[in-house]
Specification:
The protein has helices at about 5-20, 30-50, 80-90, 135-150, 155-175, 180-190, 190-200, 200-210, 210-230, 255-280, and strands at about 65, 75, 235, 235-240. By secondary structure, it is mainly alpha-helical.
Length: about 280
């Protein structure tokens, strides 16, 4: 075999190998979605446990005046500034090149630091921008945080805001992943979904997307994870904490809070994302 032919043959073999092993060629599927959502449960529970280590630290959330590089006066809380500045750095490092990640504050900071990577684009372009980060932000600070943290002020505002950022990003990633859930469901039953999308029937779409039995499994599973991961572990095993009704105070995060988080916010918001995504799926 001529040298040129051998070289061409090796290139072809290499290309086939890349196609077989490349993640972007695996494609989006129901198993992929389920695995992602299950793993995110662990991330969310751990992030809540980390935030619960610190008291409320209310001064971190009180607005105060500051002057930007342009000399303009701004009124923001320390926590908001921390999230915005952190996202700017992460944007520069390429975090938001992946469609799974959505910043709370959009920035024009160029992506310049991380090595380039060809992320998959499984979402339909006309619907990919759907997200509920504004709603997540309000729920986290106004409703969830008072359930997580005890009253008090230890002055560790930077660490506290960093924990807030981890919680916000985990919740955003989990809830806005509803776009992927909707895409998988659409591909699995295009004819029925297309008809409902064409008629803009939100109620019918919501009903079609909903599985109360599966939602109940998820809520009970995250509650149990909060029980298991929220115990103090010794060499003799987990410290006795009691049941979820009588021993809430002995867990690092009350399992009932995690159950409520999924029941009242995570699952309903995810379904809202799914419906909004589908309504733009044929744009």
């Amino acid at each position: 075999m001529a040298a040129h032919s051998v070289y061409s043959y090796l290139l072809l073999c290499n290309a086939i190998t890349l196609l077989l092993v490349s993640p972007c060629c695996v494609g989006l599927g129901l198993d992929t979605v389920r695995d992602f959502l299950t793993r995110e449960e662990d991330t969310i529970v751990f992030s809540l446990i980390e935030r619960a280590k610190h008291p409320l630290n209310l001064p971190a959330y009180e607005e105060h005046a500051w002057f930007g590089p342009d000399g303009r006066r701004h009124n923001d809380s320390f926590a908001e500034l921390f999230v915005r500045e952190s996202e700017q750095i992460q944007a520069k490092a390429g975090r938001y090149q992946s469609q799974e990640e959505i910043p709370f504050f959009h920035s024009r900071v160029p992506f310049t630091l991380a090595p380039p990577y060809n992320f998959t684009t499984d979402l339909y372009p006309g619907a990919a921008s759907v997200n509920v980060n504004d709603v997540i932000w309000g729920i986290y600070f106004n409703e969830l945080l008072p359930l997580l943290a005890k009253n008090g002020d230890d002055g560790n505002y930077a660490v506290t805001a960093a924990s807030d950022l981890a919680c916000l990003q985990a919740l955003s990633r989990r809830i806005n992943y509803g776009r992927y859930v909707a895409e998988v469901k659409f591909r699995g039953d295009q004819q029925r979904y297309t008809a409902l999308i064409g008629s803009k029937n939100k109620d019918a779409l919501m009903k079609l997307l909903t599985s109360e039995a599966q939602e109940d499994v998820v809520k009970r599973r995250v509650e149990k994870k909060a029980m298991v991961l929220g115990q103090d572990i010794t060499l003799d095993g987990p410290t006795e904490t009691g049941d979820t009704n009588s021993g809430q105070s002995s867990f690092k995060v009350a399992p009932s809070v995690v159950y409520k988080l999924y029941d009242q916010w995570v699952i309903p918001l995810t379904k809202n994302v799914e419906v909004d995504y589908l309504l733009h799926r044929l744009d």
